[in-house]
Batch of 4 targets.
Target 1
Amino acid sequence: MKWWLWLGVLAVSDAHADALPLCYHYGCKREAHFEVGADDKQRLARLLSNDATAEAERAAIKAAVRELYLMAGRSTPIWQDKGGNFPDGTADGRMDCVDHSRNVTTFLNYLQEQGWLRFHTVGKPVWRAPSILDLHYTAVLHDGGNGEDWAVDSWFKDFGAPPEVVPLAIWKEGYSP
């Protein structure tokens, strides 16, 4: 194949990549972008294509958020993040609940903008403080069918694990897996 045809192929594949923002280092002190390539996008679309119920869609959203984090970890240091705030020590890619709630909200908005969410809409991050020293943030999904809000919280577990998706009312009471 001629070299100029390869340039055209590369330009077409790059044109289909979406860049998503990401933050880390506790309180979103560091920011980066990562790409969702055409193959990644097709995989996400397949994950969310067969959802016949809101419950099935929430399960697919868990998998999609995990996939988006794995994509981000290919080009950012967030693969070093550990669940909670202290196990990751001084790792460059560490994230607190502020980082997680913002990133997951970004991911959910991306899924919504693609038209892949049929039963849910994305809310704004919320916080809880069941005790004075236990302030915690999460991303939120709103179920349009029954009006229930759901916490989508990836902070509890190490990098690469799917987020917890639980009713927001239960999460606000101090839910921890």
Target 2
Amino acid sequence: MDADSLLELTDYCYRKIVYLNTQGAEDAKYKERSGRAIQDMTPQEDLQEKTSGTEFGIAICSISVLRYLTDFMGDLPLSVMARMLDCHDILMALIPLVENPPWQRKRTRSGKPITEKYAEGKWTEVQASDRFKLTKTDAQLWLCIYNLIVDKRCRLKYTYDDFRRSTVLKLRKYLNDLLTDQLPVLKDLKWAVEQLVIQVPQTTAESASGRLIIEQVPELREKLMTGKNWRVIAEKQLKSAFSEASSATLRQAQEMLKLFQFGELMEQPTCAACKKAAVQRCSRCKSEWYCGRECQVSVWKAHKNACDILAGKVEKCGAGNADIKLDSSYYS
């Protein structure tokens, strides 16, 4: 990936981290519904709920992407590191997720409180004995924080003022033996955090002195977002492309129907009853072929239900008069 794409990816991951800190817990909240309530949900409500679930899952994946970006910080362009540390201050956005992870929730089942964690794209109940066991998302988060604090390049670039120092020191109560036994590499993180206790925080003037700041501006998203009213575009698409009454949609359906009919002319149709050569088909559904009326009547009871369904679809798309009758001499 080039520098511009990596910069866009970093911005995207940051937006998802912000979403997890603000809206993630609300979207992850368990919604207790009865069977009747589920049946009474409108299509819009169902779509909105599925959209929220999808966005939450994507945001969880963004933590893994961010972890891999920090793993290869030395191989990435300097603009990516500057974007993470100076522009977005991603470390300060990640630490609140340690305190309140939205991928963990509590709810009741049959009056009994249970704990669930989001892993492998679904919510799974966690037994009391596994309550402190790290999930993949927990591990990715901790490794990302580890890279941003312990990595030598990040330490040289990142400066700690009073706010940043006090925020990072909150990690001390989580860096216990139970955690470091599961991720031994976090012992170095624990040592680095302890060093901040005796370190004197720098002032804003000291941190900014002697630094040349050149910020690369991402262009892809700006070009997509600038000069376009996406709400107006969406409303227009809803009326034109997704409207059942759209004349353009009906014309397209009719053209597709003609293509299928043309394909039927390429080979001899057979009677649905006797399997002999057929010369005409059902005038309602346009799907079954017969050699004559006797065969059509003989299988009508079996064909009736399917015919009612298919006939409704044909009439809806405006192709009710597109019948084809074949002359048997055509195939001779």
Target 3
Amino acid sequence: MATDPVCGMEVDEKKAASKEYKGKKYYFCSPTCQWAFEMNPQQFVKE
């Protein structure tokens, strides 16, 4: 299981939408969370 970086929900990597950012893959529970991440990934990525 992975954690959606936007809402914190646990998601199944096999079923969830994903996006690669700076060499790491992030998984999302919904298109809304994926959209929010794509609009401002720095807000959700802890480096």
Target 4
Amino acid sequence: MPTAIAVTSADMALPPGDDRTMPAAVLADLDSQPLEHSLAAFQVLLDQHGHVVVVYSAAVPKAVERRLHTVRSLLESDRIALFRPDLPPLGLAVLARQLRQLASCDLSPGVLGSAARLLTHYIHAGALLGSVARLDRLPVSLKSHAKSWVPGSQFGVLAHPQPQLVRMGPGVTLPGPEFATSMLVAKGQLQSDWVTATLAPSWKAQGLREAVLPAESQEWWGTGKLIEFASFLPDLSVLYQLVTSVRQNICHWCGIELIGDRCVFCSATSPATPATPASPTTNTASPATAPASAPSASPRYQHQLPAG
């Protein structure tokens, strides 16, 4: 049975990118429902799926995060993984959907869960902001803060993989991925075509779609005047080959299969020192054959997951 990929709100469960993408388990209202309801919801997921990977944002209310850890502790379950990557909300929603895509493949729960850290490296996420006065999750200079108070100022911000901030002007753009990606755009209370007319072409985005702006985005970016974007690998075959090309280990503590040096279920780490991930390519097996067996990985795919 496929591992459940859970999110903490319905707007973090993006529509499926293909007909094989598994539905997300939505754990809504964790901060307002009785604890018994949360325990029951997790128990149902464990009974139905065996393992649960919860992907949640740093912008969720603290009460939600406390509830997640409380439920995991009370259930005394090493089959629940809690993963909070350093991604803004739209990028995190993209990551959750990629995991839902991979959940249909022949990946063990430990490999699927630890694949989240690997796939995070290939997501470029940012936003066009009308103000950076309350942006405290990324380094912002005093000069940029001062300019944000000038009426009409707009800023392009790359939050991941390397934070960068630029003030909007003719021809201004941000450094993008060096491999083929698709782009997702979610519009807030800001009017601009910079993301679709300038950034997407400069990043050579091979697909451009709109999504609903996650409710957590305003909290994460410090303003509702924004247009959030995320560039990602859309093809299941590429995602599958990236994951299966990483050397698999056995967790020395709980015995589950994993990739990388940290188990997402028990948090135990190994002394191995991984190398840098390889660049993805599109010369892979088709999605139709991916779950049946792993595609033959070329040397450029034979890597280990970065530490961290």
